[in-house]
Amino acid sequence: MRVIIEKPELPSLESYVEAPVRHWSPTIRYLSQTEVHVYALAIGASVLLSFFPFLIVMMWLVRDAFHLPAAQSALVSMLKDYFPADLGSEILKNLNKVTHRRFQVTSILLLLFTSNGIFEPLEIALNRAWGVKENRSYLKNQILSLFLILLCGGLALSSILLTAINRQPAWLTIPVYRLAAIPVTILSLFLTYWLLPNRRVPIGRVIPVAAFVGLGLEGMKYLFLYAWGWLNLKLRNEYGETFRYSVALIIFTMLSAFLVLAGAEWSARKRDG
């Protein structure tokens, strides 16, 4: 009796190519839309406007309100780690100049106003991704934005305080902060994806997306640091000393916004399924 053993059919090369194309083509089409570029630019500009007031408020809290030199050192170490050497030094130099003046109330008001501008285009983008046609009213958006600002800002402050309270050796400050910053970023993204759309969003959809985007943003930070030498040279030639740092921050925040918006598309893609 002769036994015939059939060999299993191996997947073709085309199948390995078609699967990623089918998976990523909706995201590419989504990010290619003109309105998505407008959202990313609006988010990037709002981040640029709110970034320095946010640092002023954080420095004032850890130095003057809580009187925690260790937390102040952790904040300085975080800035040196997050930004390239010359960009980080420029930010710290201006931050030290401004925070020795009494502008804290103005900085808080400016932070609240400019940070709200981040969540307006972000809500519209999330609504479009989820197929929601009606946005919240301006007042409702501002109230929710204020809540998210306070919540995400509190998470960032808690991360800095935890880094300082651990009292680890100086050489461990940066690794501890990096480890603490990742879950804070993921949690902030989860709250944004879950609360900001003007509809009920399934939690199970946004948890893995928030984790993936959070890790992606961390990787993008290192890519930005790696490319800074080349990018800084190009920006100095094109924009001069006055504007190159601002342009660099807008470019970085726009690219980050594209990743966040891609996460919105990923979390909402199965809504018709």
Explain the overall architecture:
The protein is mainly alpha-helical and 273 residues long. The protein has one domain. Helix content is 82%, strand content 0%. The chain has helices at residues 13-31, 34-65, 69-82, 85-99, 104-129, 138-165, 173-195, 203-268. α6 (138-165) runs antiparallel to α7. The longest helix is centred in the C-terminal third of the chain and has 66 residues, at 203-268. The radius of gyration is 22 Å and the shape is globular. It starts with 12 loop residues before the first helix and ends in a 5-residue tail after the last helix. The model has no long low-confidence stretch (mean pLDDT 83).
The oligomerization state is single chain
Helix content: over 70%
Secondary-structure element pattern, one letter each: HHHHHHHH
Number of domains: 1
Q: What is the count of helical runs?
A: 8
Question: How confident is the prediction overall: mean pLDDT?
Answer: 83
Strand content: under 5%
